[in-house]
Amino acid sequence: NAGVTQTPKFQVLKTGQSMTLQCAQDMNHNSMYWYRQDPGMGLRLIYYSASEGTTDKGEVPNGYNVSRLNKREFSLRLESAAPSQTSVYFCASKPGTYTEAFFGQGTRLTVV
Amino acid sequence: DQQVKQNSPSLSVQEGRISILNCDYTNSMFDYFLWYKKYPAEGPTFLISISSIKDKNEDGRFTVFLNKSAKHLSLHIVPSQPGDSAVYFCAASALWGGATNKLIFGTGTLLAVQP
Question: What pLDDT shows up at residue A69?
């Protein structure tokens, strides 16, 4: 039982490059989330998806786009990476409203 | 504007003593609260939760208290163990716009339990 799987685990990008962070869950959860973790800032919500076909902005959506491809997959795209997007990115999923979220292991992204 | 705040960046306690981690929130729409634990280079893992209809929830050594009027919750760990040393995040959940389930985290508190 894999849970929430994120790929890649590490990535270095040059400023202006684009990339997509992948997230997949095998728990049949409805809601999925993308967070970034920065020192002193905690976990900040970038985008979330209540169900397949719907996405909503979180606290820090600028510079990112997302796609809820199907119930299992929720990808995060950086169209033109900036050094300010250097961070650890976490994907999470949860089955319902009053339940806990399950997290992936994270993607450490460095933009130089 | 930070909707969920953990004002103590770090906390140090002796093994066997009580650890108390605090969290404040600003939005009265939040109706479900959670605590997570995070070790370095790992994803956060769920510890304990509480619904807004309760004021206390207990699970083994972990107890969460909710004071809705003060918009404050706390996590008590008794007794504290060295393995509890980690970053602790509180989180708050609400149905936003009537349907979408938003989950907001605080800034975290680094707990160090000294042997």
Answer: 86
